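Retro notes, item 3 of 5
We never archived the inputs for the methionine sulfoxide complex last cycle. Fixing that now. Sequence and ligand:
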Amino acid sequence: MDINTLKKNILNIIASNTGVETTLQSICNYLKNEIEYYDWVGFYFKNGAKDELKLAQFSGEPTEHTLIPFGKGICGQVAVSNKNFVVQDVSEQDNYISCGWKVKSEIVIPIFVNGKNIGQIDIDSHIVSPFTKDDEILLEFVCEEVAKLNIAHLYQ
Ligand code: SME
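Structure as it came back at the time:
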């Protein structure tokens, strides 16, 4: 499916406005089902005043990494760098938290509200080097749209 259709369908999910938790869950389910190399899709948000991330909605196998300190793993690094992190091969990363041997690559895109990095979308893939610039463009779009929702209770 082309990126514009994916974006349009994300907007339709958001427009159906069934409550923010349901919307985030639907986005996870949609991306995981629609994009074959997305094997786990989840949202992490800052855990209130703590310098750690807390897992919110996700689609895929449950993970024990529901709390991640800032700086730790790919997710924790994005919490402090404020930058996209595209890892085409996780075996090349020292600061990486494994969610199982099947995961070969990962992409994490931060979510900004009023210029503050308040969370992120995290994708795991079971194949090496699946991600292109289009993944970053699509996921940045998702993060920008999610940032417009009433999500303050998820990170404050
Ligand atoms: N691999 C991540 C941990 C979270 S799981 O992918 C769901 C990391 O290194 O931060």
